[in-house]
Amino acid sequence: MKALGLSAAVATVGALLAGCGGGPGGGGGKISDGSVTLAVLNDQTAIYADLSGKNSVEAVKMAVADFTARYGDKAVTKDIKVISADHQNKPDIANSKAQELYDRQRADVILDVPSSAAALAVANQAKAKKKIFMDIGAATTELEGKQCNKYTFHYGYNTYMLANGTGSTVTKDGSKQWYIVYPDYAFGQDMNKSFTAAIQKAGGTVVKSDPAPFPNDNFSTFLLKAPGLNPKPQVLGTMQAGGDLVNLVKQYNEYKLQDKGIDLAVGLMFITDIHSLGPDALAGTKFTDPWYWNATPQNRAWADKFMAKTGKRPSFAHAANYSAATQYLEAVQRAGTDNSDDVVKALEGHKFNDVFADNAEIRAQDHLLLHDVELAQVKPAAEVKEPWDYEKILKTVPANEAFQPADGSCRL
Amino acid sequence: MILRLLARRPVLLALALVVAFALPWLIYPPVAMDIAAWALFAVAVDLLLGYGGLLSFGHAAFWGTSAYTTGLIALHTGLPFPVAIVGGALAAAVLAVPIGYLSVRLSGIYFAMVTLAFAQMIYFIVNQWRDVTGGENGLQGIPRELFGLDLSDPFLFYYAGLPFVLVGLLVAWRIVRSPFGQVLMSIRDNPSRARALGYPVDRYRLLAFVLSAALAGLGGGVFAISHGFASLHDVYWTTSGQAVMMVVLGGIGTLWGAVLGAALIVSLNDYLATAGFEETGIITGLIFVVIVLLFRKGLWGTARDLTAARSGRHRPAAVPDPPSSASSSERLDQVAERSGR
C-alpha cells in the first residue's frame, strides 16, 4: 500500500513537472496596454501608517485626477489606475508585494515604501524587473549611493538633508555646542554622522554624542547628564523618531532643560508627531521639514483639497507622494510612452516646480530629487491659530545646499 | 469513506506532495516559497515544542543567523546557492550548541525566556555589526547563483528551493519516528522517569535543540535566497513568535499542523496586505483566538481526532499524540525493545 501510494505520488509529480513549460509568473513581460498603473506600497497598519499610509494613496489619486484634468484629451492615456498594498512594515512582505505589483498587477511605478530595508529590497526588484520605483518613505542615502540603480529614484528627503538643514543652520545661528543622542541603529548612526559633519563644517562642536538603545522609553540618563557636560551644550540634538521621540521630548520637558539653557533640535519629525504630542510639548524645537502645508498659499490650497478628502492636513510624505506621481505622469506624457527606459530618460535631469518641490531637479547622476527645504520651528500653543497650524518657517535652505553633492558612489 | 481514505498515510503524503508541487500554480510563486520556508521553520519549532516539550521563543536567532550567513556566503564567495543554504543551516546548528547547552536545563517559561534573551542578543549583534550585516538596511542583493542557470523567475526558483524544504521535513519526520524521537517524547512526558532509566536527559534535549535549529536554519537560508535579502526582521522576536503561532494554530506535536499553520499565516499576511483593512493585527489576533478556543488541539489535531472518531480506528502507537495518549513508560519499553537495551 505504501509503495503504491508513493509511486502514485511520483507519477503525479512527474506529470506536473512535464507541464511546467508555461506556468504563471513568466517574468516582466510587455507593458503599455494603453493603461498606466501607479502602485503605492507602504505601511498602512504599523508605525508609519499615520505619517503616510492610506492617505498617501489618496494623494496619488489626487495627482491622477489633476493630471487628467490638466491634459484632458491630450493626455497620453486616459486609463490611469492607482492600486495599493500594505507591507505592514515587514521587508519580506514589501519584497513579495513589489514583485507581485510589477508582475501581476502590471504596475508601471511603485511609490512611497517607507523604512530602508524594505526600500532597498524594492529597489533591487525594480532593477531586476526594469520598472520604475520612486521612494519617498525611506531616509537612507544608500538609495542614491552604493545601492542605486537606473530605475530607482529617491524623492523628498534623506538623512543628509535632515542633518545638514538643522545642524548647520542652528549652529550658524549661535548654538555652537551640541550634545547628540541617537538611536543605535543604522538610521540613528547615519544621522549622528551627518549631524556631526554639518555642525563642524558650520564652526560648531559636538561636545558628546551618545547612542541610546532602540526602542527606548527612558532617556533620563542622557537628559540628567546633559547640563553637567563640559563645555555645557547649548542644544540637545535628538535623532529619535516616532514613539522614542515622543518619550524623549516629554522627559526633556519634565527635566526643564530648556530653562537650563539647552535648546532642543530634532533630526526627523513629521507634522503628525507634533499633532499627537501637542505643540506645547515641542514648542521652540527646530527641525528640517521638506515641506509644510501652510508655508505658501499654493501649499495651503492643495492642503485644503487634501483635507476635504481625508479630514487631515498633509504631512510632507503625502505631498511628496502627490508630487512623485505627478512628475511620473508628466514624464510619461513627455516621453509619449510608459516604457521604463524612456520614462527614466524623461525624468533624469528634469527641472520643475510643483506644490511639493521648489527649484527642483532630479539629479541625473544618482536619481536624487533636489529641492528647497524649510528650517522650521514648532509654535507654542498660544500662537496656533487653527488645527495643524504648528510650524513657523525660519528659513528656506536652497536646493543646491540642502542635499549632498553627488559623490560618485552611485553607478547607474 | 473519503475521510478514511484520506487518513491513510500514503494517500495523505501523495496529496501533500501534489499540493507542494502545484503550489506556485495556485498562488503567487514568491508567496508559495514563503509558505514552504516558513513551514520548515514551524516544523522545527514543533519538533522542539511538540516532541521535546520545550517552547523556544528564540528560534528567530537560528532562522536569521542562517539567513545572514547564507546571504554572506552567496554575496561574497559566489558559490552556488545550495552551498550557501547548507552553510547557513550549519551556522545555525553551531550557534545552537552553546545556546542550547545553557538553556535546555531549564523548562517551561524559563526556557522560553532564556531562548528569547539569547535571540535578542543575536538581534543586537546583527543590528550593530553594520559593516557585515548592513544593520537596519539589511543585507541586500543576495544572488541566486546556480552554475549559470537563470533562476530570477520566482516560479522556477520555487522548484529549486523546494527540495531543501522537503529534505528538511523528511528529516524532521525521521527524527520523530526514530528511537531518539521516542526517548525525546518520553522525556517530555516524564523527565524524572527517563532519567531514572539512565537516559541523559539534557544531552537528548540539547541534540533536539541543535537539530531543530539546523532545520530552522535550512528554512531561513531558503527564505533569504528567495527574497534576495536578509533583514533585521528575520532575527526579531516577532519572527520567533510567528513560528510559535503557526505551530499552535496548526496543532502542537503533529508536524503536519505546523505546515498547515505556516500556510495559513503566510497567506493571511499576504491577503491582508492588499485587502484594504486598516488593522491587520486585530484580524490576525481574532483568528488566533477563535482557533485556539474552538480547536483546542489546533486545526490538524482536531481534524485528526475527528476522523479517528468517525472511522473508529485506533492509531498505531508509534504515531505521537499529545502527552496524554501514550504513557512514557510504554514508549521507553518500546525503545528499549528496539534498541536491544
From TrEMBL, chain A:
<comment type="similarity">
    <text>Belongs to the leucine-binding protein family.</text>
</comment>
<feature type="domain" description="Leucine-binding protein">
    <location>
        <begin position="36"/>
        <end position="379"/>
    </location>
</feature>
<dbReference type="InterPro" id="IPR051010">
    <property type="entry name" value="BCAA_transport"/>
</dbReference>
<dbReference type="InterPro" id="IPR028082">
    <property type="entry name" value="Peripla_BP_I"/>
</dbReference>
<keyword id="KW-0732">Signal</keyword>
<protein>
    <submittedName>
        <fullName>Amino acid/amide ABC transporter substrate-binding protein, HAAT family</fullName>
    </submittedName>
</protein>
<dbReference type="Pfam" id="PF13458">
    <property type="entry name" value="Peripla_BP_6"/>
</dbReference>
<dbReference type="InterPro" id="IPR028081">
    <property type="entry name" value="Leu-bd"/>
</dbReference>
<feature type="signal peptide">
    <location>
        <begin position="1"/>
        <end position="18"/>
    </location>
</feature>
Automatic annotation (TrEMBL), chain B:
<dbReference type="InterPro" id="IPR043428">
    <property type="entry name" value="LivM-like"/>
</dbReference>
<feature type="compositionally biased region" description="Basic and acidic residues">
    <location>
        <begin position="330"/>
        <end position="341"/>
    </location>
</feature>
<dbReference type="GO" id="GO:0015658">
    <property type="term" value="F:branched-chain amino acid transmembrane transporter activity"/>
</dbReference>
<feature type="transmembrane region" description="Helical">
    <location>
        <begin position="156"/>
        <end position="176"/>
    </location>
</feature>
<feature type="transmembrane region" description="Helical">
    <location>
        <begin position="108"/>
        <end position="126"/>
    </location>
</feature>
<feature type="region of interest" description="Disordered">
    <location>
        <begin position="310"/>
        <end position="341"/>
    </location>
</feature>
<feature type="transmembrane region" description="Helical">
    <location>
        <begin position="35"/>
        <end position="58"/>
    </location>
</feature>
<dbReference type="Pfam" id="PF02653">
    <property type="entry name" value="BPD_transp_2"/>
</dbReference>
<dbReference type="InterPro" id="IPR001851">
    <property type="entry name" value="ABC_transp_permease"/>
</dbReference>
<feature type="transmembrane region" description="Helical">
    <location>
        <begin position="206"/>
        <end position="232"/>
    </location>
</feature>
<feature type="transmembrane region" description="Helical">
    <location>
        <begin position="12"/>
        <end position="29"/>
    </location>
</feature>
<keyword id="KW-0812">Transmembrane</keyword>
<keyword id="KW-0472">Membrane</keyword>
<dbReference type="GO" id="GO:0005886">
    <property type="term" value="C:plasma membrane"/>
</dbReference>
<feature type="transmembrane region" description="Helical">
    <location>
        <begin position="244"/>
        <end position="265"/>
    </location>
</feature>
<feature type="transmembrane region" description="Helical">
    <location>
        <begin position="79"/>
        <end position="102"/>
    </location>
</feature>
<keyword id="KW-1003">Cell membrane</keyword>
<feature type="transmembrane region" description="Helical">
    <location>
        <begin position="271"/>
        <end position="295"/>
    </location>
</feature>
<protein>
    <submittedName>
        <fullName>Amino acid/amide ABC transporter membrane protein 2, HAAT family</fullName>
    </submittedName>
</protein>
<keyword id="KW-1133">Transmembrane helix</keyword>
